[in-house]
Write a structure and sequence with these properties.
By secondary structure, the chain is mainly alpha-helical. The protein has helices at 3-63, 69-82, 85-95, 98-119, 127-151.
Length: 155
């Protein structure tokens, strides 16, 4: 057997093994990226759900003008705690881009301002309540836009 045939066989085997390893590495990176995006998608949705549920509870408390102020305040405070806004925010901040984490913090802060307005005795129709509710809605919209960008597949 000629030595050139042996060298050609060895080179062919090295190229074959190398291309298989490179393909497997690319597939692994793609699959890891997909899993990471899916985890971020889930955590993002859970945080948005917690914000929405808490906002609804605060809004319900702000509509209860017939209740004493202290009862409305208790309902508004419970909205944040009952729906786990802060734990879900922290979980999102651990996984998200710095921009999404910053906007998540801002949305949670704006929700707290809404809660504080209700705790202070404002009802849904009061200017103060409407202002903070609108600011929360805008912060949530910015957050959702950043989340969509972060969840896009790389080109």
């Amino acid at each position: 057997m000629e030595w050139t045939a042996l060298v050609a066989t060895v080179v062919g085997a090295v190229i074959g093994v190398g291309s298989t390893l490179a393909t497997d590495r690319i597939r692994w990176r793609r699959d890891t990226g997909e899993r990471d995006r899916e985890t971020l998608r889930t955590v993002s949705a859970e945080f948005l759900d917690a914000l929405t549920q808490a906002r609804d509870a605060i809004s319900d408390a702000s509509r209860s003008g017939h209740l004493p102020v202290e009862e409305r305040a208790q309902l508004a405070r419970a909205g944040i705690l009952d729906h786990g806004v802060h734990p879900k925010q922290y979980q999102l901040e651990l996984l998200a881009t710095p921009e999404v984490a910053r906007l998540a913090g801002d949305a949670a802060y704006r929700l707290l301002l809404y809660r504080d307005a209700v705790v202070a005795g404002h009802t849904r129709d009061d200017t103060e309540c409407a202002h903070v509710r609108r600011a929360f809605r805008e912060a949530r919209q910015k957050l959702m836009s950043a989340m969509r960008t972060a969840l896009m597949r790389p080109s």
